[in-house]
Amino acid sequence: MTRRILVVDDERDMRVLLQRIISQETAHEAVVEADPFKAIERLKTDSFDMVITDLKMPKMDGIQLLEEMKKIDPTVSVVVMTAYATVETAVEAIRKGAYDYISKPFRRQRIVMMIDKVMEWQQMVGENRALRKALADKNTLPAMIGTTPVMKDIYERIRQVAPTMATILITGDSGTGKELVARAIHENSLRSDKKFITVNCTAIPEHVMESELFGHVKGAFTDAWKDKKGLVEAAHKGTLFLDEIGDMKPSMQTKLLRLLQEGEYKPVGSEVTRKADLRFVTATHHDLKADIEKKRFREDLYYRLNVIRIDLPPLKERREDIPLLSHHFLQKYARLNGKDISYITPTAQEALVTQPFPGNVRELENYIERGVIFCQGDALTLQDLSLDSDQVSFFTDMENDIFQLAFKEAKEAMIHLFHRQYICTLLAGSSGNISKAAEKAGIQRQYLHRLMKESGINARAYREDVT
Ligand SMILES: Nc1ncnc2c1ncn2[C@@H]1O[C@H](COP(=O)(O)OP(=O)(O)OP(=O)(O)O)[C@@H](O)[C@H]1O
Ligand SMILES: [Mg+2]
């Protein structure tokens, strides 16, 4: 099917070249425009599937043009062309909604491939518009727990970027939920019915990595008895999740860059280039910028990966989510272990909220799992949890520690602890019903709300229907 492409560039040679490539090597129709303002006018009256525009033009830069065009037709796919020096601007363009960028100079083939990719994407989006709307209407991500503002922002971001083709970099400390986010992106994408394949770049030694990813042909090395498919092929049309990308060795980084840029790879021992259609999601706990400086990570690969970034905060920066998460894990492991444990005692809850958790959500989950195994009754207690002893002693030795502080601080610490203990116990006794709890305590509902907010307590953690 013929589709229409609008080319915007102030340089005549470039316009001629692109028009020639499009008419000779694709089935589509090209319209060229030297003046960005005229291009905008054209888009208002005419319809295009794709726009290819230069980034640096005298009258208006490509980013502005992109923004104007997206206002007129949000469905048009815009690809920007850029010289290497302005690659950061190109990344900025992608954040603003461009489909992708092409660095100049480029090979003919690169333009043709990009056009094919965009047209395939346009078709897929067209077919899935209804699905897309349905996804956008949902305001929860079922697998992810947490209601703190940072987490809500993350859900929102996932929902925005999931249905696009953009490469995503997820950063965060160990155990913060990077893999969970990667899965959520896949589940909310147009590829959710295809495979989600994880490649752990740490666990695989370098020489094995290449054959794991790209596969190999018979005889490629001593143990290669027969042809083997790689994970790239297994993930074709789906999502490839490259976990711990910061650990990937430089020679593999180069091969990965080719896969990302051209969609091409070669199985080990083969001279035949193969194609893959993949959505890339990557994750790392490294500071990639620092790795670039130490020459451990390729800068051009970083720009490719860092188009859209999702940063997961450590658990200690969202302690208010701990009660909800704990309750979620309690239900999960009680069910798995066939135990009937319905709640976490307020003292145990209190201890959990103040634990340091260097291992983040994963560590919290481990504590609860272990606690459930040891638990004899219908509530998870402080003893069951076997938290680090110096943390627990904070509660038992509070009376001693308090005398080390100045009077004002000691009083505040005591009041804070009292608020938390009192409110946790109160809410546990009223199954998280705030009105009931306030009545029982003889205080105003609004006042209780304020106290809860100050102490970072969430009533949902005490409700029985929480999942
Ligand atoms: N927001 C959340 N809601 C529910 N479960 C979560 C959440 N975040 C993390 N988890 C759980 O915590 C565990 C660790 O999460 P995950 O494996 O995604 O972390 P990670 O950042 O990839 O960790 P690592 O760096 O150790 O690989 C998983 O069992 C996951 O299901
Ligand atoms: Mg992980």
Give the amount of beta strand, in percent.
Answer: 5-15%
What compounds are bound to the protein?
A: adenosine-5'-triphosphate, magnesium ion
How helix-rich are the residues, as a percent range?
A: 40-55%
Q: Indicate the CATH class of the largest domain.
A: Alpha Beta
CATH topology of the largest domain, by name, is Rossmann fold
Number of DSSP E strands: 14
Describe the structure.
The chain is an alpha/beta fold. The chain has three domains: 4-126, 3-Layer(aba) Sandwich (Rossmann fold); 131-313, Rossmann fold; 317-462, Orthogonal Bundle (Helicase, Ruva Protein, domain 3), CATH 1.10.8. 50% of the residues lie in helices and 13% in strands. It is built from 22 helices and 14 strands. The protein has helices at 12-25, 36-45, 62-72, 87-95, 108-127, 129-137, 149-161, 178-187, 206-214, 231-234, 250-262, 288-293, 299-305, 322-336, 346-354, 360-374, 382-385, 389-396, 398-401, 407-429, 434-441, 445-455, and strands at residues 4-8, 29-33, 50-54, 77-83, 100-104, 168-172, 196-200, 239-243, 264-265, 274-275, 279-284, 308-312, 343-344, 379-380. The strands form four sheets. The chain has a five-stranded parallel sheet, sandwiched between helices. Helix 14 packs across helix 16. The protein is globular and about 80 Å long. The two termini are 48 Å apart. Residues 130-139 and 389-397 have low confidence and may be disordered. Residues 178-179, 243 line the site of magnesium ion.
